[in-house]
Design a protein that fits this description.
This protein is mainly β and about 1050 residues long. About 5% of the residues lie in helices and about 60% in strands.
Length: about 1050
């Protein structure tokens, strides 16, 4: 239905319609009365006043050149409710001529009332409109107990000067909103949807707004009443999609916005206002945010919560992209900002900013604030900062706090920071990548600046870059790190105190740090004054730190402290002053330093404490290492770890006792490392040496080499055995100068000097294992060479027939030991033979076995595979001859567990030929007793082998020729046919058994040794044969040896054979 109405309602009706109280509120709010429309009882096109009416047709309304019209109007009266219901869609065109633009005070829907009696307008369908030139809101609701319900979509284009929807008290329910606002008045009231004074707006679906004007805002929710009282004011929506040039959403004074789904905003900036601004106790909760800001201006912020109880809650991801304007004039732009006790909580964050001086996450507060200002990201936070002097994450003061999980920050501009804190930042699983001049990864400053991290990976590249930097009282703690810095003047860890007595501190609980540049340092410490216990400090536990590609390990300027526990530090340590003096205190606990230590001048002290077996490997490159104080508490100072040359260690004060390792050349009596001590404490110190003379053999004659000078004559030095990772333990003799004598018997020095005079070497623990491994292989081969009875039992019980066949199987196991080792072995053998006649048997066998050896400091395993052929001939009077030819292969694995654990493996072949003769003599036919004298000779050979261990030791084993003779006797008693029981005794002698062993270690040490396995021993045993049927037999024996160097502790041998 179409209606055209031209009559105009006079403005005088304002006070009569709105009433005195509402008019007063208008005045308080500062609105000009002449700009607030008023509608008389007769001005509604579809109107109800204190009654209910229903419009059944889908109406279409067109209004032109007319003021004060409300298309749909409802107003209650005292005691009378008003309700206007429209079944279907509402289509409205309301156009004001250009001549009186924005002078029209009409509206599309207006609902008001007494505040006690209900008033409502309900549209079952959509509301579609085209509005041009109205002065105020298109949809207006006021008073308590008022309702506007639009079941469908509110859609259209509005050129109204103020809001599309104005809710002041009452409730507006809309299915969805899709509105374009084209007006552009320069005032703050130009808001597409404005909710205030305790009103509620509910949009079930999406709110889609396009505010095209330079001043056009999206949504404003404000809970303050005209009298200043706060009342909860609410907007809810399924989703929000806003295009704007100014502010998308503003919530304040107990205003609340709740969005189930996505809040999407594209802002093409003409103002540096917040995109989503929450302040003065307002709040917004959204499923997620997707915000793009183009042409960003100074101080622009995507998400901002400012003031007490101001909160932003994002259940999902907040995705924020901020792009610079054409001239890059925008600065101090933030993706997320909380201030003045506001709070922001995000499910996750994905932010990218390319403006200068920008911040990804920023928190502002005062130290005097009553509570913290807080930003929390519960999931992943990914931040890309492209502009110079930018901060990925910054907490700017003591009551500022940021809590994060799974953080990734990338900075590409000069003078930028990944994380910076003057307040508190706590984060887990942090990945930082930075490039540019002074690219800083983690930074804390001021007495309140604190950063606490669990798992940090940082890669910072650029001149003066820092991985972790604590400044002027800042504190940074990380339980695991992997930090790499590159660039001139860079540092992985840096602490600085300038003009402050508050301590800057870095504490690292594990991981790796390094710097890579000739002018950089992995650890950099600086202070301009001595603050005593508050000097800057770095604490390391379970950390590997190193300077690579020419970088120093440590650069200390002024007064500072480094504490390293269970850590490995590689690189040179350099200390200088920042004026007239300086002191670097370096405390090691169960740690290792690989490098030189030196200071810039005598006015700079280096105090080194080595506790709990700490080790200092002086790596060379500096001819003189100087210490003000060395407090050695069972630590090790190793001067032999350099690649060439000799070092001098200068110590002003030596405390405690420890071990000192020298590079020496005793045969020269000139060359060697030296220690010079001014004062020392009384105590026994150990001296170990790596002597070049031993590479070429033994040192002979009277030799004296000065290695230590102690002016105070308090400390004592004693030689101690050293295993330097080669083949030998070398024990030096250290004598005081007035005790050591030259070749003619005169003292070579004074009581303040200590000389190396003798060297004694012995095979070390790991080498001993390699030597004993060859014993185990020989013993296994020797102990598995058999006699006829052990191999086949008594074959005369087989009842051999011409042209018969047989198979047999056998197990042999036992234990043997020798000097320094013990082994167990197991062998399994399977054979086949054929009897040409009752006197002759020929056959072959295959066997496989292993031997497991235990050494004092190692273990070994030999695997043996072998095959044999044999022939046995029986005579008429009980005599027999047995010949066996055997070939095998050893596969040997060796593990040592000494001072330098090692592994090796070798292969070699083995051969043997055995001839055995014996004769069974019946002693008593009645008792069925017998004796059987035997003689056997076994010719064997173990092939040579060579291998290289994991630590680079070359091992060569020559072959072994073995000639073992045996004489023995068996005495027994026969039972039923095929059964007997016997005792046996043997005397054996090894006529050969010589083997040469040569070794060459990676450090140049060599060893040559000859082994002689020649030996004589006895064996005793018992055994028997049991018939299991006409064509099968079981046999076995057990024995042990006596008197051998390699002694068989016990051996069991069982087998069975079948003839067919």
């Amino acid at each position: 239905m179409k209606k055209t109405v031209k009559n105009r309602i006079a403005r005088e009706t304002l006070s009569r319609v709105l009433g005195h109280s509402v008019l007063s509120a208008v005045l308080v709010l500062g609105w000009n009365v002449s700009t607030v429309f008023a509608i008389s009882p007769s001005s509604g096109i579809e109107q109800v006043i204190g009654v209910t009416n229903t419009v059944t047709a889908a109406p279409t309304y067109t209004i032109t050149n007319d003021d004060y019209k409300a298309v749909l109007y409802a107003r209650s009266t005292a005691g009378n409710a008003a309700a206007l219901n429209v079944n279907g869609d509402v289509n409205v065109t309301y156009i004001q001529p250009t001549s009186s633009l924005h002078d029209n005070y009409g509206t599309l829907i207006f609902v008001t009332g007494t505040g006690k009696d209900s008033s409502s307008v309900k549209v079952d369908g959509d509301v579609n409109f085209n509005v041009s030139g109205l002065a105020y809101s298109d949809i207006w609701i006021e008073s308590a107990n008022t309702t506007i319900d639009i079941a469908g979509k509110l859609t259209g284009v509005s050129d109204s000067r103020n809001s599309v929807v104005m809710a002041r008290q009452g409730t507006v329910n809309i299915g969805s909103v899709d509105v374009t606002v084209t007006s552009d008045p320069a005032n703050n009231n130009n808001v597409a949807i404005r909710v205030q004074d305790g009103a509620t707006v509910n949009v079930a679906g999406e709110i889609k707004l396009d505010t095209q004007g330079q001043w056009g805002k999206g949504i404003w929710v404000d809970g303050v009443l005209a009298n200043g009282v706060l009342e909860t004011t609410t907007l809810t929506a399924g989703a929000i999609d806003i295009k704007t040039k100014v502010q998308a959403i503003s919530v304040l004074h107990q205003g609340t916005v709740t969005v189930d789904g996505l809040v999407k905003v594209v802002k093409n900036s003409t103002s540096g206002s917040d995109v989503v601004g929450i302040k003065s106790g307002g709040s917004i909760t959204a499923g997620s945010f997707d915000i793009v800001v183009n042409d960003a201006l100074t101080n622009e912020t995507a998400l901002r919560a400012f003031g007490d109880d101001s909160t932003i809650n994002c259940l999902g991801t907040a995705k924020i992209v901020i792009n610079k304007n054409a001239g890059d004039t925008g600065s101090y732009v933030s993706a997320v900002l909380a201030g003045a006790r506001g709070e922001i909580t995000l499910g996750s964050l994905d932010a990218e900013l390319d403006t200068k001086y920008s911040r990804g996450i920023s928190v502002l507060s005062n130290n005097t604030d009553s509570k913290e200002t807080l930003v929390t990201v519960n999931g992943a936070a990914k931040i890309m900062m492209k502009g110079e002097r930018s901060y990925g994450i910054i907490a700017q003061s003591g009551k500022s706090k940021i809590m994060l999980q799974d953080v990734q920050v990338t900075t590409t501009g000069n003078y930028s920071y990944g994380i910076s804190s003057g307040g508190i930042v706590e984060a887990n699983n942090v990945v930082l990548n930075g490039s540019g001049i002074q690219a800083f990864g983690v930074h804390a400053t001021g007495g309140d600046g604190t950063v606490i991290l669990k798992n940090l990976w940082a890669d910072m590249a650029g001149q003066g870059s820092r991985g972790v930097y604590a400044q002027n009282g800042g504190s940074i703690t990380a339980d695991y790190v992997d930090i790499k810095t590159t660039g001139s003047g860079s540092a992985a860890l840096a602490v600085t105190n300038i003009g402050t007595i508050q301590q800057s501190a870095i504490t690292i609980g594990g991981g790796y740090v390094s710097s890579a540049d000739s002018s950089s340092a992995a650890l950099r410490l600086y202070s301009d004054a001595d603050a005593g216990a508050n000097n800057p400090v770095i604490n390391l536990t379970n950390v590997q730190a190193e300077g690579v590609n020419g970088s120093r390990l440590i650069l200390s300027s002024g007064f500072s402290t480094l504490n390293a526990a269970s850590s490995i530090l590689t690189g040179n340590v350099y200390a200088n002053d920042t004026g007239t003096n300086g002191r670097f205190t370096f405390n090691m606990d169960a740690s290792e330093l690989n490098g030189s230590v030196f200071s810039s001048s005598s006015t700079v002290d280096i105090d080194l404490t080595m506790d709990n077996n700490s080790r200092w490997n002086i790596a060379g490159g500096v001819s003189v290492n100087n210490l003000h104080c060395l407090d050695n508490r069972n630590g090790i100072v190793d001067m032999s770890s350099k690649s060439n040359g000799y070092e001098t260690l200068m110590i002003d004060s030596l405390k405690g006792t420890g071990t000192y390792i020298f590079d020496t050349d005793l045969s020269s009596e000139i060359y060697g490392d030296k220690i010079s001590i001014v004062t020392s404490e009384v105590g026994n110190n150990l001296v170990q040496v790596k002597d070049a003379s031993l590479i070429n053999g033994e040192v002979t004659g009277v030799k004296n080499l000065l290695i230590i000078t102690d002016a105070s004559q308090n400390a004592t030095f004693v030689g101690s055995a050293l295993n330097s990772g080669g083949l030998w333990d070398v024990t030096p003799t250290i004598e005081r100068g007035d005790v050591a004598l030259d070749a003619v018997g005169n003292p070579v020095g004074t009581s303040s000097q200590w000389y190396l005079t003798k060297l004694r070497k012995a095979v070390n623990k790991d080498t001993e294992v390699l030597l004993k491994a060859s014993d185990n292989s020989y013993a296994l081969w020797r102990n598995t060479n058999d006699s006829l009875r052990k191999r086949l039992g008594d074959i005369r019980y087989r009842g051999n027939q011409d042209d018969s066949d047989g198979i047999w199987a056998r197990y042999t196991g036992g234990k043997f030991d020798g000097s320094g080792f013990e082994a167990s072995y197991n062998m399994y053998q399977l054979g086949y033979d054929k009897s040409e006649n009752a006197k002759s048997t020929y056959g072959f066998a295959i066997d496989s076995g292993t031997s497991h050896a235990d050494y004092s400091f190692g273990s070994g395993k030999d695997k043996l595979w072998s095959g044999s052929i044999y022939g046995t001939w029986n005579g008429e009077r009980g005599e027999y001859t047995d010949i066996v030819a055997r070939i095998g292969m050893f596969d040997t694995d060796i593990n040592s567990f000494g001072d330098y654990p090692d592994k090796g493996s070798a292969k070699n072949h083995a051969y043997s030929l055995s001839v055995e003769y014996g004769k069974t003599i019946e002693m008593s036919e009645k008792r069925k007793t017998f004796i059987e004298p035997q003689i056997q000779f076994t010719l064997g050979h173990l092939g040579s082998s060579s291998y290289t261990t994991d630590r680079g030791t070359d091992v060569y084993l020559s072959g072994v020729n073995s000639y073992i003779g045996r004489v023995g006797v068996v005495a027994g008693k026969k039972g039923a046919v095929g059964n007997d029981f016997y005792l046996k005794a043997n005397l054996l002698h090894e006529f050969g058994g010589d083997r040469d062993i040569k070794m060459a270690a990676a450090n140049g040490e060599t060893l040559s040794k000859s082994c002689d396995y020649g030996d004589t021993w006895f064996e005793l045993g018992l055994g028997g044969n049991i018939s299991m049927g006409k064509n099968s037999q079981f046999y076995g024996d057990i024995e042990r040896s006596f008197g051998a160097d390699i002694q068989k502790k016990w051996q069991i041998n069982v087998g069975a054979q079948w003839s067919f």
